[in-house]
Amino acid sequence: MRYIIIRKADRETEAGVMPEPELLAAMGRYNQRLADAGVLKGGEGLKPSSEGFRVDFDDGKPTATEGPFRDSADLVAGYSIIDVNSREEALEWASQWPDLDGGGNAKLEVRRLFELEDFAPGEGVTAIEKTFDRIEAQPQAINIYLNFAGQCREAFEFYADVLGGHVAVMMTHGESPVADEVPADFGNAIMYAVLQVGRLHIMGSDAPPDWYQSPQGMFVQMEMPADRAKIAFERLAEGGEIRMPLAPTFWAEQFGMLVDRYGIPWMINSSLKDCLAEQ
After folding, report:
1. Which of 41, 73, 145, 252 could cross-link to 203 by cystine, CB 3.0-4.6 Å?
2. How many Å apart are CA 156 and CA 166, to the nearest integer?
């Protein structure tokens, strides 16, 4: 059974006072004990209500009210979610909350969470189950991974310059933990590379000669403003092959396709129109 341990707000949390290092360390040790016991399922601290808002409904019409809010005792400063075998076990864990918090005067509220099994079977429960099953199936990340025939380092440095990113990782086979298993003439080839462009990542490596295959049936697709799209398209096309010149289409102000000098296919969309951008 799952419980939420609610740490009630107080004057200090509402004033945005950050916890002292000693308290952070104590909370870290507490969370570690929860994790070691296999009961910790999540938890977060909350910013003061001055950075939040409330939404009240009147006959279905929402009205938003900006914080801060009065009566800090009715507010929440943070929470932990635990999965335990009984109410008594939940109380036991809540009673071990670090006494450094709130100067020894923190107030907690512990509430049991509903489980889907608590509800009678029906269309609503089925829909919720399907939604959570779909969420659980979602990967933590989906990234582009490119293979090269020995040009990975050069390509990633070029892409970093064109796309305004930086090479975050570049490891050769010779630098890897399995360097002694790699042929001597392949030691300088790239085993793993990561190009970071803002919050986006492109990964890649050099494939052994007998493994490498030129990309087929795929494109690296980018969406960019018109002025930057033109610059990126022209630079990526240098030494490569333009498959479709950058030009207006019914779904974007500009669209073009090319294969760069390293054999990587690119597709660039600029200023997607509403019919596609809202999908």
Report:
1. 145
2. 9
**Cα gap 133→81, rounded to integer Å:** 20
Token pair 């990340």 is found at: 141
Domain ranges, ordered by start, for the chain: 2-54+63-136, 140-213, 215-279
Of 255, 195, 200, which Cα lies nearest the Cα of 230? 255
The CA distances from residue 247 to 204, 223, 271, in Å, are 30, 14, 12
CATH of 215-279, one of 2.60.40.420, 3.40.50.720, 3.30.720.110, 2.40.128.50: 3.30.720.110
**pLDDT bracket for residue 275 (50, 70, 90):** very low
- For the record, the structure tokens of 113 come out as 């969470």
Q: What is the DSSP letter of 143?
A: -
Q: For residues 1 and 84, is the Cβ–Cβ distance under 8 A?
A: yes
Residue 231: C-alpha distances to residues 112, 249, 255, 267 (Å): 56, 18, 13, 14
